[in-house]
Amino acid sequence: MPNSHLTPWGLTRMRPLGPPVEVGHVEVRLDPSTQCGVRIDRAGRLIEAGKHGTNREQKRSQQTGGGDGKNPQPPDDTEIIEYVPD
Amino acid sequence: MYPTEGPPAEPVLVLTRVDDPTADMVIAELNRRDVPVVRLDPGVDFPRQVSTSAYFDTSGMRGDVVTASRCLDLRRVRAVYHRRPTPYGSQDGGPDPAARFAATEARFGLGGILAGLNCRYVNHPWHIARAEVKPLQLIAAARAGFLIPPTLVTNRLDAARAFADAHKRVVYKPLRSIVHTNAQQQRFTIWTDTVGSDEMDESIAATAHLFQKEVDKVADLRITVVGSRLFCVRIDSPLLDWREDYDSIVHTVVDPPDGIALACDAYLKHFGLLFGCFDFALSREGEPMFLECNPNGQWAWLEEATGVPIAAAIADLLEGSRV
């Protein structure tokens, strides 16, 4: 195709998204009894439910990154990640 | 209290990643109702922490899926909540053929087992996949009776320019939302934004591009449908694409426009969905114009902002207490 080498016009519409939202926890584990996620902070302490503000942060990070805002992308690569839109 | 007679209650299977506070809201509600829950993220947990055997014969499928903390009988699943599981193989990326083989077999094997359960799905993953395709959305929306803004999907520059000139104000939006991360870890995305024909060039030929007549809108409506329940929230934002800044949104729970519930129902039935997040632009004439319907959209922020009880409505569907 004659134009297949072109960078698609749509990519010219890219805008900066800002840094990932700081979510306050470093790890999420599944609580075997409740099957809910439990969040662990940098010191290895449990973050009390309702105090991690996840709804608000999630709405930002998930609607933007489709991720949790803390999973780094491969540092040596430029890539487009699949994202489930909100 | 003595334990009640009979087998234990059938569990709800929740498929999502471990970091999903939205799923947690629904699971917490199910816990309050003493509905058992089995949660896993198949694309991450299998086969590290999850094993399965499924047997197929003339009576159908039987077997189990065992997680680190639960054993799921494939014939005793009450309902499936398919939220945001990690795609199979995304943990083992890279060109290793063995890892690719393992991921593909997992997707078609365990993914097939989990898609073949004889129960209610909110929503079925393959129905979600179909309902996420914008051309199919627009066709279904027109059939369901929604007003839709004139829309063009093209890789022809002349067609795009003619469309933009004919409709005066048009927007460009990607057919699938993306986030682009560069080598410096900076993130980029494409919001819906206006475009003039003079901004277009021959690089439109490089792939499919979606252009849509811009609705002269006074506000947006976000309608979340959960089974037979409908939650209509008006979104006032200074931005064309309100997703760009949730902090600038004013949310108001409003009555749905006349006739819209029936059209939403017809639309969801077309795709075999029990849950859908509809986005409308409310025109100056008060007409809701269909923009899109996300079959797996976010809703937790709406519940937080307005108190609409969406988690409980989803739990109702999963528990089986109402449709």
Strand order of the largest sheet of chain A: 2-3-4
Strand order of the largest sheet of chain B: 16-15-14-17-18
The secondary-structure class of chain B comes to alpha+beta
| Envelope shape of chain B | globular
- Give the overall pLDDT of chain A as a whole number: 63
Low-confidence stretches of chain A: 51-85
In the CATH hierarchy, the architecture of the largest domain in chain B is 2-Layer Sandwich
Query: In total, how many beta strands of chain B?
Result: 18
Task: Write a structural description.
The complex is a heterodimer of chains A (86) and B (323). With 86 residues, chain A is α+β, with helices and mostly antiparallel strands. Chain A is 13% helix and 19% strand. Chain A contains one helix and five strands; from the N terminus they run E-E-E-E-H-E. Chain A is elongated, with a radius of gyration of 17 Å. Chain B contains nine helices and 18 strands. Chain B folds into three domains: 111 residues, Rossmann fold (3-Layer(aba) Sandwich); 113 residues, D-amino Acid Aminotransferase, Chain A, domain 1 (2-Layer Sandwich); 63 residues, no CATH class. In chain B, helix 5 packs across helix 7. Chain B is α+β, with helices and mostly antiparallel strands and 323 residues long. In chain B, strand 1, helix 1 and strand 2 form a beta-alpha-beta unit. In chain B, the strands form five sheets. Chain B has a five-stranded antiparallel sheet with strand order 16-15-14-17-18, sandwiched between helices. In chain B, strands 2-1-6-7 form a four-stranded parallel sheet, covered by helices on one side. A four-stranded antiparallel sheet of chain B has the order 8-13-9-12, covered by helices on one side. Classes of the chains: A alpha+beta (86), B alpha+beta (323). Chains A and B meet through strand 1, strand 2, helix 1 and strand 5 of A and helix 1, strand 2, strand 10, strand 11 and helix 8 of B.
